[in-house]
Amino acid sequence: MKRYDLIVVGAGPSGLSAAIEAARCGLTVAVFDENAKPGGQLFKQIHKFFGSKEHQAKIRGYKIGETLLSEADAVGVKVFLNATVSGMYMDKEILVRRGDAMEHCKADAIIIATGASENMVTFDGWTLPGVIGAGAAQTMMNLYSIQPGQRVLMLGSGNVGLVVSFQLMQAGCEVIALVDASPRIGGYGVHASKIARCGVPFYLSHTITKAEGPDCITGVEISQVDDHFTPIPGTQKHFDVDTICMAVGLSPMSQLLKMAGCSMIDDPRRGGQVPLVDENGETSIPGIFAAGDVSGIEEASSAMIEGRMSGLSAAAYLGFLSEKDKDSSLNELEVALNSLHQGMFAPGSKGKAFTKTDEGIAVSQSLLKKGYLDEADIARFNHFDKKSGVHPVIECTQNIPCNPCQDACPKDCIKIGKTITALPRIDADSTCTGCGMCVASCSGQAIFLVDEDYEPGYASITLPYEFLPRPQKGDLGTALSRSGQPLGVAEIIDVRSAKAFDHTTLVTMKVPVAQAMTARFYKREAQRAEL
Amino acid sequence: MNRISEHPILGNTEMGRKVAFFMDGKQMEGYEGEPIAVALKAGGVMIHRYTQKNHEPRGIFCAIGRCTDCVMIVDGVPNIRTCITPLVSGMRIQTQDGVTALEVTE
Amino acid sequence: MKSINDRSQDIGPFVSQTDDGVIICRCEEITKGEIRQAIHDGMFTVNEIRRYLRSGMGLCQGQTCGRLVKNIVVQELDVIPAQLDPATSRSPMRPVEMKVLGNEEVTHV
């Protein structure tokens, strides 16, 4: 039997972060992961992360994964892949399957970072080929470069459903509709708006009542639901689709902790059965820790901090780190974690309906129900004296933990302040140069540059664009509204790509000045016939 | 074709070596090392198996080896999770029927 | 609070529902109706239902249906989820062939 100072189960964001911190303190660390590739779900996350600098905001998930792997390698963490931990016992012993053999390993401390599994909902025909989990869609398109389907219906409007819908479109698939039984969109409004402006309709208070097809999916039937989530007869709608994608939440994969004898609780706010842990992730069994989604469903950003906290705690538990050093490092991490736990989407706010932002501005109901800001809403959030020339328009209207736009502007036009959930404000005294750094840095793609005085009668709008083919200067196409409705002809007057933009192309289009505050997306001319 | 050759964020896709394999006796092509399920999907195969009790079709569901819905008979061995098993040149894949191979009339 | 283990409680007669035919356990092909019937047969815990019907005992080991079965029991018995323990977790957690399970590696990693 092999012995280590620390065994980490799971090589995702929290497991790797934990292993890195512990190895830096001098522990011999082995990480076991049942998958063939490390990184957990990070390598499927191709969007820019939220948060602030310390949370690696505006960096795409797969890049964060690459950094974690090279860090782990540099500090001597051993990562065993295709190594399925099949059992864990009270005295910190695990049973691992590797290849055609079983192996027992022991450690003085164990960190469980096994993540989560996808929840599913059932409906008539849900076992047919073509009904898949959102994770499956991400795996297929972002890891193995294959489209999950041509015409996809997404069930679930949480961040996973919204982000994966956008990724499906980036992969060249058509998202037919986004459906959720809840009367409100569950994820960030900015994620919803990215999809809405491409013309994807949202069906809130709806659910799937039937998946159709003889031996694989050819269509889907959705129905409106009442206050008790029961389908209302006569409200059925049909769509021709070849794929139904489910993004209806995650459950902690906490079986190993339970089997080892850790005290467990059922906590709906954390996603289900989770271990009882202290603020550093230590379970009821001293020396056994839990970090990341396994101790409560959150984002990868918080999983990485939790991982680091548990890694440091394990190091201190084994005497590799003085209590004093532990406390100072942990305090810093706790501040970073707390800053992610603020705002409308904080774990403690799950299910709460906010009517006002922290700033006291009425929340856009249109954003919650249709996925886009109503024109009347915009004025409430962008109340500054309009100056002549180019200026940013920030359509970020919910208190979410994110602030890269503040750092992006070289002229300090954008202010958020210390509380990273505060809404960005535009400083009227600073002068925008139109560099576009804020547009590219906004993980929610919610910043636009508008110049009402571009030409007499015409305005220019610069928007973030992450699809192929990229528009070319001189192209004529259609300007789309926030809801994806065609507004009229738009001419592409500038297309900018830069390393600093990280694959986000800045597209500038010319539209009649009357559309300066309504046109927010662009569709190529070739697709006009479909509109 | 449902392969993504160029992606706005991930760029151009690098594929492994093109190899031939057999699906229910019929020759197909895929890329070495990619999951069997991906090669099958690229070739339009949606049904991986029929269930034992109700004889219902199943295919890819979780794509990460958890749900075991995509299992097939690979080189004579049943219950192989095709979404996490790498494709090897010359592999013989068969639609699973219950726990045995589906009889295919050619 | 009602106790899961109060076997004398009257949970009423089994009344069929329109979605009773929907598969819950994909591996063992157990329907919602079968699970509800099992509850009326006196199987009140997830473990009992698992042994009675084999739901969650197939290849995937309850990965997908664990939560679904629990929700059905919660509704049928009208209890809160926290009152109902999920199925027992024990090694091996993932399906493994007997020949592999019996092949204990003694050399060092």
Can you lay out the helices and strands and say which pair or pack?
The complex is a heterotrimer of chains A (531), B (106) and C (109).
Chain A (H helix, E strand, L loop, with lengths): L1 E8 L3 H12 L4 E4 L28 H14 L3 E3 L2 E7 L3 E6 L2 E12 L3 E3 L12 E3 H10 L7 E5 L3 H12 L3 E7 L8 H8 L5 E3 L1 E7 L6 E6 L12 E3 L3 E4 L3 E3 L2 H6 L3 E4 L4 E4 L12 E3 L9 H18 L5 H18 L24 H6 L4 H7 L9 E4 L9 H5 L5 E2 L9 E2 L10 H5 L5 E9 L2 E8 L10 E6 L4 E11 L8 E8 L6 E6 L7
Parallel strand pairs in A: 1-2, 1-6, 2-3, 6-19, 8-15, 9-10, 9-15, 10-11
Antiparallel strand pairs in A: 4-5, 5-6, 7-16, 12-13, 13-14, 17-18, 20-23, 21-22, 23-24, 24-27, 25-26, 25-28, 26-27
Helix pairs in contact in A: 1-2, 1-7, 3-4, 4-5, 7-8
Chain B lengths: L5 E2 L3 E2 L5 E6 L2 E6 L4 H7 L6 E2 L6 E2 L12 E4 L2 E5 L10 E3 L1 E2 L2 E2 L5
Parallel strand pairs in B: 3-9, 5-10
Antiparallel strand pairs in B: 1-2, 3-4, 5-6, 7-8, 7-9, 10-11
Chain C lengths: L22 E3 L4 E2 H9 L5 H8 L11 H13 L20 H4 L8
Antiparallel strand pairs in C: 1-2
**Helical fraction of chain B:** under 10%
* CATH level 1 class label of chain B: Alpha Beta
Give the second-level CATH assignment, the architecture of chain B. Roll
Percent range for β-strand residues of chain B: 25-35%
- Count of separate structural domains of chain A: 3
Look at the structure and give the mean pLDDT of chain B: 95
Protein name (chain B): (2Fe-2S)-binding protein
InterPro entries (chain B): 2Fe-2S-bd_N (IPR042204), 2Fe-2S_ferredoxin-like_sf (IPR036010)
GO molecular function (chain B): iron-sulfur cluster binding; oxidoreductase activity
Keywords (chain B): Oxidoreductase
